[in-house]
Design goal:
Blueprint lengths: L24 E6 L3 E8 L3 E7 L3 E8 L2 E4 L6 E3 L3 E5 L4 E6 L8 E8 L1 H14 L18 E3 L2 H15 L5 H27 L9 H11 L7 H7 L4 H12 L3 H17 L6 H7 L5 H12 L3 H8 L1
Antiparallel strand pairs: 1-2, 2-9, 3-8, 4-7, 4-9, 5-6, 5-8, 7-10
Length: 308
């Protein structure tokens, strides 16, 4: 899928007189179960070392970084993306475009290992995944660089808001929000694994077979009855477990896949909106246009003008 990038709300940059450093100036909010860091860089820099305590979820808010992590090629890092950094893992970071008028800004949530373990154990005990051999867990380095989902971005924004408040109960509120953040992170990683790499898991994961069927029959009538039968589940269980595992319903997933196909078709010079509507699996033009604007933020016609 190629959904619209879901940009987190950036925090207002610090005024110059409040900066302790022009490179990775650090503002810290320490709570019981995590530490929230906001890093700002106001000048170009190269190979800046950084190490955080505990596993950290980092998210770009402004500008661009180039990340160097052990054992993998360097990669560009933009707003709308997150990177999971392992416990005590050393990062080296380039800031090729940072300046006083255009600072970079990155969020890093360092999470205590006990908090992660407690959340994972709770999920596996009460809300098991579809396949017993793939229990809830944070994925490894191959799924560390993520495109944010709307759900992950929204939870991060709430975590920032509660961390910065003076509410007397903020540690309690923050604890609940952090648990949700961990769930959203694991759901996002599960989407990367099954939605994008489903072919590797066709014989070991029932939802990989469902995704494969959806992709091969995208323009046809895709009933939940048929999909639940493929997953060897009742309709109600399939709906519930799919949403629990990935953070969206099967119907929402089909809509996003069809919209991704519509975007691909709209980029073709001779395509028209009505034809794309049918070829992407939608059978009602006004419904297609409404869904496209809801998910992509602009109409199909406006999208076509921007891309052709």
């Amino acid at each position: 899928m190629n959904p619209r990038v879901h940009l987190p709300t950036a925090v207002a940059p610090l005024p110059p007189h409040q900066l302790q450093s022009l490179v990775e100036n650090r503002t810290v909010f320490a709570l019981d179960s995590y530490e929230l860091n906001i890093f700002e860089t106001h000048q170009k820099a190269h190979r800046v070392p950084l190490r955080l305590d505990g596993l950290a979820l980092t998210t770009m808010l402004r500008g661009k970084k180039v990340m160097h992590l052990p054992g993998r090629p360097a990669f560009d890092y933009f707003p709308g993306e997150s990177v999971v950094v392992g416990e005590d893992e050393r990062m080296e970071i380039d800031f090729p475009d940072a300046c006083a008028c255009q600072p970079t800004q990155c969020l890093a949530v360092a999470i205590a290992p006990d908090t992660i373990r407690h959340t994972v154990e709770l999920l596996n005990e009460r809300y098991p995944r579809a396949e017993a051999h793939t229990p809830w867990a944070l994925a490894g380095p191959e799924h560390a660089h993520l495109t944010n989902t709307p759900e992950l971005t929204g939870t991060l924004e709430r975590l920032v808001a509660v961390s910065r408040t003076t509410d007397a109960a903020k540690d309690v509120l923050a604890s609940f929000t952090l648990q949700e953040l961990l769930v959203r992170l694991m759901q996002t990683q599960a989407r990367e694994l099954i939605f994008h790499d489903y072919a590797r898991h066709l014989t070991t994961h029932r939802f990989a077979a469902v995704v494969d069927y959806i992709k091969r029959h995208l323009t046809e009538n895709l009933s939940v009855e048929k999909l639940s039968a493929l997953a060897c589940m009742s309709k109600a269980t399939f709906f519930r477990v799919f949403k629990r595992e990935f953070g969206l319903t099967p119907v929402e997933y089909i809509i996003r896949e069809r919209l991704a196909e519509a975007k691909r078709l709209l980029r073709q010079p001779l395509a028209n909106v009505a034809d794309v509507c049918l070829r992407a699996g939608f059978n009602n033009l006004s419904h297609f246009q409404a869904l496209f604007k809801k998910y992509e933020g602009l109409t199909p016609g406006a999208y076509k003008k921007l891309t052709v």
